[in-house]
Specification:
The chain is α/β, with parallel strands linked by helices. The strands form three sheets. Strands 1, 13, 14, 15, 16, 17, 18, 19, 20 and 21 form a ten-stranded mixed beta sheet that branches. Strands 2, 3, 4, 5, 6, 7, 8, 9 and 12 form a nine-stranded parallel beta sheet that branches. The two termini are 32 Å apart.
Amino acid sequence: MTLPDLSTPALLVEQSRLEANLAAMQAKADANDVTLRPHAKTHKSVALARRQRDRGAAGLTVATVREAETFVDAGFEDVRVAYPVTGLDTHERLQSLRDEATISFTVDTPAGAEQASAVYAEADDSVDVLIEVDVGHGRCGVHWSDEDAAGTLAQRIATLPGLQLAGILTHAGQAYDGPSDGETRDEALRRAARQERDRMLSVASALSEAAGSALDPGAFEISIGSTPSMAAFENAERDGFRVTEIRPGNYVMHDAMQVALGAAALDDCALTVLTTVISTQTKPDGSHHAFVDAGKKVFTTDTGAGTDGYGVALADAASMQPHPGLRVDRLSEEHGWLTVDAGVDLEVGDRLRIVPNHACVTVANQDRLHVVDGDTGVDTWTVDARGW
């Protein structure tokens, strides 16, 4: 299979860049003496998850029960749902997987813990739960500075049948906010990484002090990880506690957001969208435009700090050079709108490769990933774990 054989839009994964990304993150984990438990929501692919495991990753992180079911069915034996799981039906689906795999998940409220206990209390063994901590993103989780709330939740978990407190978990989503107050991109990444690590160590230390000798630093998990904060991650110790696990997901592909944040270079991006020009137009104001067959259902409307439009059109995919005269500046459902500089020769039927802003959402909307070596197809992987 070669690229002209593919119908568009199509998702292409450059094999050499993918393998380099896998190796680099595993090396980061090994150097910091942490387990790499990659987040599979980025690729949702059994084939790709197996490559992560082959390189040394231990266990998987998922966001949905559907993802957990898919990877357990494929033989993965340690799956962590990094999401505050609620609902009787959801917990029953997870419980049904425990004969085949070790399952764990997060809670961030006493009510969430009580709902979980109602299912797992009848199980033969307790299920591991981790307290989700908010280290600055402002989404779910007990705030890192609220030691009383963290302690109260930990004590409640300890009293509930069927639950075992395994540790704490966070997602430093604030790393996606980019620089502030005159920071450089590197300084912003280092700040986010320090916050994520140090605030989690602070919570662990506070929980240990509240629990006395009942909390063993050697057995207490501290799980962190976003791809941009991993770019600057260095482990450290406080009161016997260290980060034990990292859970980046986007690193396998990288995307225009990671490039804009300084967490990756454009030539680290393994995922591109192959798309076809379906129309070229010169509007009454004299502006030139091209329209491609990939819109928001492929690229998504996600933007982030430092991004310009909805993806990066490439002049040359081999060298990952951005096209200076094309901008993806608007999306319809099935149309990508490109502004074309004067002098750029683009015709109907021409094909472009575009780096999406957000690889995770792009992959989640498609059925297949085409693995390529330059212009030659190597393999086709299904996106196995779509849905909830």
